[in-house]
Amino acid sequence: MSDKTTIGVGMIGYAFMGRVHSQAWRNVGAFFDLPLAPRMAVLGGRSKEHTAAAAARLGWADVETDWRELVRRDDVQIVDICTPGDSHAEIAVAALRAGKHVICEKPLANTVAEAEAMVAAAASAPGRSMVAFNYRRVPAVALARRYVQEGRLGEIRHVRAQYLQDWIVDPEFPLVWRLQKDKAGAGALGDIGSHIVDAAEFVTGQHVVGVSGLMETFVKERPLAGESAGLGGCRTEERGAVTVDDAALFIGRMSGGALASFEATRFATGRKNAMRIEINGQLGSLAFDFESMNELWFSAGGGGFERILVTEPDHPYVGAWWPPGHGLGYEHTFTHEIKDFLEAVATGTDPEPSFADGLRVQRVLAAVEASAADGSRYTTVEDS
Amino acid sequence: MSDKTTIGVGMIGYAFMGRVHSQAWRNVGAFFDLPLAPRMAVLGGRSKEHTAAAAARLGWADVETDWRELVRRDDVQIVDICTPGDSHAEIAVAALRAGKHVICEKPLANTVAEAEAMVAAAASAPGRSMVAFNYRRVPAVALARRYVQEGRLGEIRHVRAQYLQDWIVDPEFPLVWRLQKDKAGAGALGDIGSHIVDAAEFVTGQHVVGVSGLMETFVKERPLAGESAGLGGCRTEERGAVTVDDAALFIGRMSGGALASFEATRFATGRKNAMRIEINGQLGSLAFDFESMNELWFSAGGGGFERILVTEPDHPYVGAWWPPGHGLGYEHTFTHEIKDFLEAVATGTDPEPSFADGLRVQRVLAAVEASAADGSRYTTVEDS
Amino acid sequence: MSDKTTIGVGMIGYAFMGRVHSQAWRNVGAFFDLPLAPRMAVLGGRSKEHTAAAAARLGWADVETDWRELVRRDDVQIVDICTPGDSHAEIAVAALRAGKHVICEKPLANTVAEAEAMVAAAASAPGRSMVAFNYRRVPAVALARRYVQEGRLGEIRHVRAQYLQDWIVDPEFPLVWRLQKDKAGAGALGDIGSHIVDAAEFVTGQHVVGVSGLMETFVKERPLAGESAGLGGCRTEERGAVTVDDAALFIGRMSGGALASFEATRFATGRKNAMRIEINGQLGSLAFDFESMNELWFSAGGGGFERILVTEPDHPYVGAWWPPGHGLGYEHTFTHEIKDFLEAVATGTDPEPSFADGLRVQRVLAAVEASAADGSRYTTVEDS
Amino acid sequence: MSDKTTIGVGMIGYAFMGRVHSQAWRNVGAFFDLPLAPRMAVLGGRSKEHTAAAAARLGWADVETDWRELVRRDDVQIVDICTPGDSHAEIAVAALRAGKHVICEKPLANTVAEAEAMVAAAASAPGRSMVAFNYRRVPAVALARRYVQEGRLGEIRHVRAQYLQDWIVDPEFPLVWRLQKDKAGAGALGDIGSHIVDAAEFVTGQHVVGVSGLMETFVKERPLAGESAGLGGCRTEERGAVTVDDAALFIGRMSGGALASFEATRFATGRKNAMRIEINGQLGSLAFDFESMNELWFSAGGGGFERILVTEPDHPYVGAWWPPGHGLGYEHTFTHEIKDFLEAVATGTDPEPSFADGLRVQRVLAAVEASAADGSRYTTVEDS
């Protein structure tokens, strides 16, 4: 690695997303031939003590307690935003203006307006920008897209996407930040619904053009959490209002004529991270479930579906890892994302999904919310 | 069987449904201790020659070419209607007025008005009546209902039902009667959508109270079939308009507060008869797919789903058949249906699903059509 | 059916096997175009009362309490033997000598000597004979054989067959006839091990040429059953010795050079009727599990296995039944068997599996027993 | 990490195993609270140039081209042996004598004699030693052991273990080092058969006490590889003899009375890394397949198996990683192994599996070879 150009990374946030991004930065160079060698320069966080401990554990050389300082540093060329959605726009715009490349966790922002500002900033800045819809980099999902592009499905008729979790099914689960609209922007719709909208568009190459939606908050109040940094936290006897959706369902149309159905929920008991997508075309079909992330199911019609174990060297990203049958895990999707991002930075091309892609997803989510607020009326997604 | 009261059956129609009903009438007494011994008295059909051949093959003692004659016969106490939906109402009402018991294929009728007339006739007649939603009699589906009734799922949050087939995905598949509105009433919505609405209501014990729908006819014209009695038929070069939906998606709410999503399509390449339902409750979840009809998946939370092989003697209907692990097939659901119907007739109770249940399903379908015609606006299902 | 030649059937035994054979005789003509119309003439059983009740229920016209009388009757051209193994040889030989066609439950006999006598009788008699290894007639198993014959697997390297049940895992399960050597001949080895030996030979077209075996009786004594006709029975406080094997494992070689492993057990908790076979060839592989009997898994190398839903019209036997996706059950395998048997009788060809095939399986079982008794030493299967 | 005692690691070999061990050393500290902070001090390899490139890529600070030098270095307290089996004994014994802790890839050695020497060296040295049977550290496998220890299976009746791969099914695949007895010691038996023997003993807590085996080399000659360091290599027109087994089957008995069957093959077309184990006990059963490594199947009798998604925080090793439903991959098993090894080193306890455990596996393999060479005769495994 010694003769490669080094590029400094500053990452803000070290909770769940920060931990998994760190894992990607730390390992990407051991598996992929990169044009740039990332240097884990600075970790940003509010508490000096906690941030320093996290940096030591995760492998960051230095820390900053003010993200503005981090964004300004000369040893930082890439800013990696792993904070809740309410700070994405401000940090990303500042970083872009400071000439940095930016990779930002999803959903891109908490509102369409914020996302538009980010896209505008990206358009006028020299740095590259990317929104971190990591499920695109599941090898099986990338292989699904390849199959569609190769024409193996023919004209697409149906998209059926679900993201099912169950971590708040217990009404006594506390009111963590992900259940508060001011911090998270939205509930299941924004957090996990955004993933399946992006995945559906990525795999099919079509956009969602209109939706009809239903949203629900099953548990209206929850115990206040002592702190709300992670998924858990200490409980108190006080209760607060849940201000986001617990579940969102929407049906709609894709730009190529397919019908689509989407469901995002945190109340699907027994489903832990069932990010699922099925696509039916005139010639073939595909099905995927992240709970079996190394498998893609393909039908070329006839009477069956093939379970493809996506661990062959010619499958996307897989050649860099282990022999066939030795599966990958969740975190690898981030390693692939960082690899693609670094290549885009090095070649001066735009990485995908771009901030514009993130904005389009945001507009789909906004259309779902508008539809749900208007008697589920079919609502056209605003043009990008 | 000799000392049991015999009850005469007249069946109208001998295509797919007639064949499977015959199999049920012929075998039910060999497996279940019945209060009444059915006698396969008369088969009704238009062509004398074809009907006679079918009767010989299927085990019916006599034939009639006019259903009015069949309905009038003294040796017929039960009329079994296996014709397309456009004749259900007329035959059923006549049979009920003639004092017969009636079992009628689904959907109950082609319109809500027809279904209402049938319910009215049933209410004022001495005979029992039943609509043949056979999937209720899949042992795994009946077991699912038992689990819900036992409280194993707790409060139900989500219903997710799909009925996926692919038999008309080829645009050159001919214009058979099931694709013609005047004969079939509706397309995927009525034919298979009705099954999943009934199954969702049966398993949860809740009603669909409102829906938002999308419908589509992907292939607008198809080759005329030489004859349109079955699923196939000879093709000609002429084409005719497809006057029913190819696919219908709808989301909605159940009477107990659950969110529900439904999808019925004949364009899901590789899915042959994937009648699927998943239910998520606060305490547990259930999942079923008819393509693996002897399996029910149950989660009591935690990290897993149990694949229950529904072949144990204490599972619904199963004790009458074979030892554990020796699965049943499609036709057994009809045998179970006939068994339950005969018991209801013998005891003078109302069998389930009744014509009123069939009407309720019809009203859900009508609400879907109304919603789809009105920009997917959320539409309340008319009260029974 | 009226213009077809009728052929009279006499069946002996009406327990589990008799019930399922009756179902096949009763229905085969409704689904298959048969050259001969079977007439369910006589049911044989020891108790007049019980036999008459069974005949009424199962559809037999008359009864005999002495099988010798049944075998002699002029209205019986086919004798169907559904008794325990200790009477197979005597009945079959008598029936063949009386000029009847014979279909006999498996295993063919309790000893090689008996099986040899049956083969000799079959060779010198005018009637056709068949041993009822019904799993050959599972459509998925027949499709597996077709794939091998078409060369899709290439040279076969491995056969891996298991028959796993768990119905006697409880040490208090009573000492039914299947656990007594004098009646059953053998335990898991003969009852279910015979099925997987036959299936392995059928699918691969190769013979088992040598074996090394291990057998075990885990539970040496069990409560005496009040009666031992079925799988169950009333329990007493007395105990008797289990005189057959609970489980048998053997490895060996096939005539075409493949390595094979077999396991038959009634102690595989949670496996109800897992009759499984996997075959690996140089070009492809197949896997089957009877607990999902409508599925066959096929790999053409690469990274996956296709789950073939064996319900397409061009799959073996399937065209006679229901549309794609509407699965069959256990009993259909017997209907297929009877259909093939009737065709063989009509055309004067030898049905498969013949008594000679049954004898070959018997010799494999004998070799396993000999090996197990001699320190698992590799033992050559005696030539037919 | 700064206030933890640092411990220096020297690793020998940087092919497949070296890459995955490096990944474990590099990341273990970011996920687990370790008593010792490993320092990736030295990488050993024969070629200066290649070793330096690998060290740069994988994160090793320095290189040595002579393993004897590496073993002597003061900045190395742990020696990690990732070479082919023919050098394990020499390196391990030297490292132990030099006072180092040793972790050694499996199988422990190429012969029982070598393994015995290693155990003797370990017994008289101050350092800790461990053999790297990584499949013990699959969370699902560790959970299986926990279930057995908790008594959920009751008395164990059956162990059924297979390790199925297909990477040499093509006869033109070259003669790499794993197919040469002088380097690899054995073929499928040693390479992958050793894993399932260890896993069976680990999960059940019982030892294999006797075996009856069959071995086969299907393809006797293969093209010479240009180089033989990895799984692949350039091909020439010359051919050489395959001197190891392609497949090994053995059946046997466990110390607790269970029957066991094992199969290791590289000729199971379509099976990429199907390391499978099923255990049937009187009360329950377990099943695992590494191709779905985040799943464990458990039956408590009744009619079903529960698919446990082994991603819950209370599952072994899982709490250190991601939220439920976010699966792990192959390499995590090594990270868990290193974590356990470091804890053992820190506390001065013996890590598992020890060299003695590795020797016991070796003796099972030797018994299989002896049995296969003696007509499959049942052969007692030599006592440790």
TrEMBL record, chains A, B, C, D:
Which superkingdom is the protein from?
Bacteria
Keyword terms of this UniProt record? Oxidoreductase
> InterPro entries this protein is in?
Gfo/Idh/MocA-like_OxRdtase_N, Gfo/Idh/MocA_oxidrdct_glycsds, GFO_IDH_MocA-like_dom, NAD(P)-bd_dom_sf
One Pfam family assigned to this protein is GFO_IDH_MocA_C3
Is-annotated flag, keyword Oxidoreductase? yes
Tell me where in this chain the Gfo/Idh/MocA-like oxidoreductase N-terminal domain is found: 7-132
Indicate the segments forming the GFO/IDH/MocA-like oxidoreductase domain, all copies.
143-286
| Recorded coiled-coil stretches | none
PANTHER family xrefs: BCDNA.GH03377
Q: What is this protein called?
A: Gfo/Idh/MocA family protein
